[in-house]
Each structure stands twice: as structure tokens, then as C-alpha cells.
């Protein structure tokens, strides 16, 4: 009788999570100015990045976490600034950035 050891259960390769985290981080760089998109993509990017840390694509997961966390922070800052401006009653509908540029 020959002994055949039972194989250890392997963890599933979650490289898809690392790649998804990186893609969401890159998309979030373009969409952080819209608070709903920036917040949603940022949170999802961090979650998928954490899931992808135990994959073979660990570097992509770390890059996705960094990009997603950075843009999530920018989204939070932009949202707080918008809420504070709105609560002060500042009207930005006639805002003209050219008023600070030199006139030639």
C-alpha cells in the first residue's frame, strides 16, 4: 500500500483584485473631483487592493491602494471645502479665475 499525502489547500490567486485596485486607482485620479465617484472608487480600490495583497501581483495591489487612498483623501478634502463654502453662503456662480491673472 502506497501513501499519498493529501495536498494542502491552496489559496486562490487573487491577481484580479490587485489589477482591479490599480484600475480603480487610476480611474479615481480622473474622477476625484466628483465627490460621489471619488468616494466610491476610492473605497472600492482600497478594498480590492487589500484583497489583492496575498496574490502574485502584490506590487499592483500596493500601487492601487496608494492611488485609491490618495484620491480618497483628496475627495474628502474637496467635499469638506465644498460643504464649508456652501454653509458660509459663498456664491461661486460668478467666479472668474481671470481676475487674478495679469491684464495685458
Briefly characterize the structure.
By secondary structure, the chain is mainly alpha-helical. The protein has helices at 15-31, 35-52, 58-88. It has a domain at 15-85.
What does this 3D model show about the protein?
It is a single chain. The protein has 104 residues and is mostly helical. The protein has a domain at 15-85. The chain is built from 3 helices and no strands. The radius of gyration is 22 Å and the shape is elongated.
Task: Explain the layout of strands and helices.
Blueprint: H1 15-31, H2 35-52, H3 58-88
Helix pairs in contact: 1-2, 1-3, 2-3
* C-alpha geometry: elongated
Q: Percentage of helical residues?
A: 55-70%
Largest beta-sheet details: none
Proportion of residues in extended strands: under 5%
Distance between the termini: 95 Å
Task: List the secondary-structure elements in sequence, H or E.
Answer: HHH
Subunit arrangement of the protein = single chain
Radius of gyration, in Å, reads: 22 Å
- Count of individual helical segments: 3
Count every beta strand, where a strand is a DSSP E run of 2 or more residues: 0
What class do helices, strands and sheet pairing give? mainly alpha
Low-confidence stretches: none
Let me know the average pLDDT: 85
Using brief descriptors, characterize the structure shown.
mainly alpha, 0% strand, 104 residues
